[in-house]
Amino acid sequence: MSVSTQRFTALDVFRGMTVCFMIIVNTPGNGATTFSPLLHARWHGFTPTDLVFPSFLFAVGNAMSFVMPRYQALTQGQVLGKIFKRTFIIFLLGYLMYWFPFVHWEEQRLVFNPIGTTRIFGVLQRIALAYGIAAVLIYFLNWKRALIISIFGLFLYWALLLLFGEPGAELTLHGNAVLKLDTWLIGSQHLYRGEGVPFDPEGLLSTLPAVANVTAGYAIGYFLQKKGNNFEALAKLLLIGCLLLAISYAWNLVFPINKKLWTSSFVTLTVGLDCILLGMLVYVIELLHKTNWTYFFKVFGRNPLFIYLLSEVGAILLNFFRVGDSSLYKAIYRSLFMLLGGYIGSFLFAITFMLCCWLVGYLLDKRKIYVRV
């Protein structure tokens, strides 16, 4: 196996892991009986689940470091066309996913989902915007300047939250600038309500620091390509990760780690952890050449956006179709998994759902079908 192929293997595995765990944490059989590490932190704080989404953004940037050099043979118009097209399609898919299946049950009859209350921002939308902004910055300014601008953006975001949040409550659920901007821009009817009140954890303003997850992923990908697969490069990667962890914990004292606000300390923490995790994968896959275990995750990594979208649409449909007074989702959990116990049953439901998504990815991979946007 060539060096370049191995690098793509490590990237596919890293990206595949993020998709795999995104599906697991998003589809528990019963949210009330979910193991705490598989739940997001309620507000300030951090759990393993909080690492999943930023890791996907990091992987997006890592993949860009292999793709961007190919753009040198294209005109500026062609490059921007590719970037804007991909950004638009991913954003649109995210928007349509939240509107889907376009109807809902209300007193045993189907009622159309009004477009006026459809959630506008979300996971795919954040991926689209963070990718688009990072790609434009890197293309026009090179990755070093883009990374510097992203770091500046982390401090700018901190300042914006302090300046435009409610005094004394700028980092609370009800008084932050992210909520204020989203409410002013699109209205509370278009916001996520999973917190019990209108608030979107993927709001527009908090996309600013998320761009740094992508540019950092690009920088690390570029670093590995230039330095090669050797212990010196891995040592530096691990040192970068440890340094970022120290910065994040120090920053947490004045700007708390918070996934739902995507605070700057959250960015440095997640990028630091991703550097360490990626370093571990590079060591095992590329230096030790232990690859027998990697295919499972490569299946996810080769069609990441498609499999993630499939998992979300699948969960939506299982909750939409009815079995008596219950959704098909709940009926399957209660009849097959709840008998194993609340927490174990909920976890095994999520694992089973993830494996079903993996099977689709496996069939696509065997047929060499790779869905690209």
From TrEMBL:
Which residues are listed as membrane-spanning?
12-31, 51-71, 83-100, 120-140, 147-165, 204-225, 237-255, 261-285, 305-324, 336-364
Arranged from A to Z, the UniProt key words for this protein are: Membrane, Transmembrane, Transmembrane helix
Q: What is the official name of this protein in its record?
A: Membrane protein
Species name: Adhaeribacter aerolatus
